[in-house]
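Interim report, section 4.2 (structural modelling).
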Amino acid sequence: MSSENREHKAWREAFDFPVPGRAEKPRTKGLTMVIDKGLGLTETDDLLDLASDYVDYIKLTFGTSAFYSTRLLQQKITLVRSYGVDIFPGGTFLEIAVLQNRMEGYMERARELGFTYIEISDGTIEMSPEIRRNAIRAALRADLKVICEVGKKDPRENMPHKRMQEQIAADLEHGAYKVIVEGRESGKGVVIYDAEGKIRADELESLVKGVPNPESLIWEAPLKNQQEELIMRFGPNVSLGNIHPAEVLALEALRVGLRGDTLKACIRGLFRPVLRE
Amino acid sequence: MSSENREHKAWREAFDFPVPGRAEKPRTKGLTMVIDKGLGLTETDDLLDLASDYVDYIKLTFGTSAFYSTRLLQQKITLVRSYGVDIFPGGTFLEIAVLQNRMEGYMERARELGFTYIEISDGTIEMSPEIRRNAIRAALRADLKVICEVGKKDPRENMPHKRMQEQIAADLEHGAYKVIVEGRESGKGVVIYDAEGKIRADELESLVKGVPNPESLIWEAPLKNQQEELIMRFGPNVSLGNIHPAEVLALEALRVGLRGDTLKACIRGLFRPVLRE
Amino acid sequence: MSSENREHKAWREAFDFPVPGRAEKPRTKGLTMVIDKGLGLTETDDLLDLASDYVDYIKLTFGTSAFYSTRLLQQKITLVRSYGVDIFPGGTFLEIAVLQNRMEGYMERARELGFTYIEISDGTIEMSPEIRRNAIRAALRADLKVICEVGKKDPRENMPHKRMQEQIAADLEHGAYKVIVEGRESGKGVVIYDAEGKIRADELESLVKGVPNPESLIWEAPLKNQQEELIMRFGPNVSLGNIHPAEVLALEALRVGLRGDTLKACIRGLFRPVLRE
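Predicted structure of the assembly:
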């Protein structure tokens, strides 16, 4: 929806957002990707009628879209797209298609069903750089946009940052629009998060240092402390993923200083990105 | 809804509630305040069709109501009120209005949108007793009822109990209907809760000792163990806030002994308030 | 719904499920029981339109059904049954009926309201084997199917495995269709779960060893790690209960290897039940 057609917000004239500079849709930064484990049609409509200005992507996570009937999945995809929101199936699907040597058929079916993006990941399986590049190209040929994901789901397989940075660079070069940093649904014990879900600051900084444009990243950040810290670190227009549907407005409040934590930081002058805008 | 018009409950004749004496709506004690982080219209209708007898307030928490269109917010407020439930925006809004010197405009807009209550808090900002009193008066002048809140969101700013007790007394004297004790959405590391969300019994008792009428308090108690302990301490008609929408009936079951924990306490004779009724 | 009438699944031809052999409805193993703390009518319809193939039972948990109007409860029961899903009130109700000497009236009312099953438990109260047997018989006479539950909610009352095994055997002999192993809503500090919700493997094995047919058990397993471990231990067709409505498809993905954790186990050859199928 263009900003001209956007509906009048209830409190627009009453006061200013404490944090200025939040990007509006359509936007290329500050994206919010919602994790969808099985929202029904009515629930989806209800969410987007309220919050579509604050949702960029809906991910039908894991292999959950396998359990939809063709009818319901097509209805849902049509509905989501009518709100100007993109939708894609979880990366686990692509990994299984690779395992079963059915990648092209997978892309075709995704497009036929109406998906607009494909996630390409190797969170669970081993995938050579060649297969990864081929998958990106196959998706683009099938007229699907591509979001890649880096990082292993299993903490025992932790990938060196150098390899993740190379993967990010290669993915973008081969045509991925953005690259997700794995955070899982739990946000615990994976990549930049410790077993309690706290951000390991040194890991974060070391990973980011080798990425030319951090705006190409979407951080999976299901927990509030993660969202808050990433907003404090990168500003209101950091791209965040695996956001629970019920948390979309709460996250937006964090972004613009309408929640205690970031409002406090504004008042104390700790919110550097604001000063920079 | 008057008790005459209330619908017949499905099991009314089948047995008696283990805990007697639960107040019915309209009531002045035993209030339940639901925290709403972004319920859609249909979801709100669905919740209240089932549970409006057990919901007294809906709080559009943080600054989330800033993201509603005027259309949707007015529809939602009208819907909520049609079920005999009051609704108010989160206190963070009032704090920002104070910061931006726009308090009167805020009150007017709240009333225009159809809100019936205003929350006045200083969980994040510093507020002098004079400004607090003026805010209460401005709200009353704008024909809004007032709920105040005491307690700081940030544990490093912990307020002495004496000052909280004075604030509670002053708020009620200046016209607040009830005073909320801060518990945040998380219920952790704030006022009477420790970092794991357990009630610090000594803090609770010391705070309550200086409050002439504990029924003037609404305890934010998002976690089940908190709800259970406060019911055990104050009886089924303690007022509780920040209740997750999906927990409304589970809380009501706790109140009247229709859940294992309080039923057990009834059987063991540990549930003192029952004996007192 | 017979498998002939079942709708076409969106990805059926695109690839095979990594774990084969998942039982389809109507089924006698691999049951999924959803815990319902107060789903509204629309929410229930939305859930089942999407996921009724993966839901066998809905339990209106604790005494929450006491707060429904007769109208709404009958509408909800009719709706749930129209999707080929069974529904029953929480066991706490039966325990209160026993305490108040109103068991027969309770059974009659349950049947009148349209419930298809009754849960018979003694998680909170003491119940003699005679009363338990009588309760099962009264339910069967009232034309209700019976699910029993073993295990105490309060960890201080922990029951020896031998007694639980005897109770399971007696319940099945007296006509119970399945027996639930208590896990509570929290999944913590109860029967096979430690205070953090981890499965105590020795407790699990010791309990199972004395049960002739483990397929007669439904494990309450609200947490993901519990679901995953029980699927790894017993295969995709283990019966699980207290599944949160929002987790139904995520659980189904775990069962068939469409989620990282069980997919990984398949690849590594650790998923013994697959090999056995």
